[in-house]
Amino acid sequence: MSFQESFKVHGENLLKKVKELIEEGNIRKITIIDKDGKELMSFPLTIGVVGALVAPVLAAIGAVAALVGECTIRVERDGEKE
Q: Which of 9, 27, 36, 57 is the most exposed place for a label (fewest CB within 10 A)?
């Protein structure tokens, strides 16, 4: 079973929040949406994805963060919602 959560962040906090979410480890997919509702990027995460495999994604997120003001991070998680 999986569920979705959304977080509103400003561009300067985007990369930090995504890193926090990845470290939690129960994430299936992360989608970044601009303030107009347009999907900017989406990427799946699988169990065991760490380090060098995540680095290119984080670099792309850093570039997006420099361009957007406010955005929403939509997270699809494994497990039951608490």
A: 36
